[in-house]
Amino acid sequence: MRIAVTGAAGYVGGNLIGQLVAEGHEVIAVDRIRGRGSASGDVRWVCGDVLDRASMRSALDGADVVFHLAAAITLRMEDERAWNLNTCGVATVARAAHDVGVRRLVHLSSVHAFDQDRASVMNERTPRSHRPGIPVYDRSKWAGEQELHKVVAEGLDAVICNPTGIWGPCDHGTPLSRLNGLARSAALGRVPVFIGRAGFDLVDVRDVVTGLLAAAEKGRTGENYLLGGEYRPLIDFMRLAAVAAGRRGPLVGLPLKALKAAMPVLEPLGARFDSDILSKGALGPLLASPLVDCSKARRELGYHPRPMEDSARDLVAFLDRAGRLGA
What we know:
Blueprint: E1 2-6, H1 11-22, E2 26-31, E3 43-47, H2 53-60, E4 65-68, H3 80-99, E5 104-108, E6 121-122, H4 136-153, E7 158-163, E8 165-167, H5 178-187, E9 193-195, E10 199-204, H6 205-218, E11 224-227, E12 230-233, H7 234-244, E13 252-254, H8 256-272, H9 280-288, E14 291-292, H10 295-301, H11 308-321
Parallel strand pairs: 1-2, 1-4, 2-3, 4-5, 5-7, 6-14, 7-11, 8-10, 9-13
Antiparallel strand pairs: 10-12
Helix pairs in contact: 1-6, 2-3, 3-4, 5-7, 5-11, 7-11, 8-9
């Protein structure tokens, strides 16, 4: 089968392409740059702009299935580039796919498209991220889904997957993804103190790939599928990575309330250094700390994520092989 992947040079893209090649598919890898650590095999790299419909029509022509992964991730409250890429980019790729007769499109959205403050247990019926005052990434991912539904109404066969926090091996990015960067710091023994009880649902990138492939085969047109992994306090996540590297990890957990109280000082400081890590957008999901119900994906897609211990072990082994656990 001929399969196109937008955002192919990214973290999820690299893992997805590797699996597609292993299954014998012909892959059209669409991005502005060629990914590092790219899988060998039948992969044709195409430079494409997901905001340009003609560019996308050219890139996607002849594809049976398209996986749309291209997105901008940010923790800022406002970011014009992220808004455009996450909304207009989805619309452009969807319309181009419809133009050239793609059989099915699978859109990688996010758990952040659901309003995490509105439910202690999230599922596909949880209210969506449209309120003012929540981060632009959350609002843009929901807006992007709305753009996709317009094209579905015109006849495009598309399915939406909403992963939680993605981490795990085969991350060739510089820098690493945020979660993998934190795990690497813990594996190096550089995080003696971390946030205490705050938690989030984290999922292995390989399970996200499996979910995307299952959605392409079994998902129902226009439906969302939450792809979660396991809910843990983030300090436990850090300790798992440390233990996998033979270290103890963070010994002290700071109260989340203390971080919240300091945010009026920390957020301007982070902005001064062009960082969005110390921000309300970063703190919000930890304060909400929702559980994620993936029973729909389990039931309809046969989705079964792996234990976090396996992800931690495999990530640390990958970082070690890649020479990224040096001093």
